[in-house]
Amino acid sequence: MNRKELVEAILKNKELKHLTKKDADTFVSTTLETIKKAVKKGDDVSLIGFGTFTKVRRAARTGINPATGEKIKIKAKTLPKFKPGKAWKEMF
């Protein structure tokens, strides 16, 4: 499912039939931007029944180039991480 399909799915909800396509797209944009900004700032975003978005730091490490076998240094970096909630995991 891509962003356009997500907006269409929101519009199919009978309780949200008063929304326009632009309103639904704005809702999706605002939600995603708010989550990204909060995680970037270092806050965890927990959506009960869905999951938790967090910021994690990966330490620098030594890797191996699979084509040449040469050792390479991989820099430390910070990345977003998502952990699905219990209810979502149990669906599968």
Automatic annotation (TrEMBL):
GO MF: DNA binding
Keyword tags: DNA condensation, DNA-binding
UniProt cross-references to Pfam families, sorted A to Z: Bac_DNA_binding
Record-linked SMART domains: BHL (SM00411)
InterPro entries listed in its UniProt record: Hist_DNA-bd, Histone-like_DNA-bd_CS, IHF-like_DNA-bd_dom_sf
PROSITE patterns: HISTONE_LIKE
Claim: DNA-binding is one of the keywords in the record: yes
Sequence similarity: Belongs to the bacterial histone-like protein family.
The protein, known as: HU family DNA-binding protein
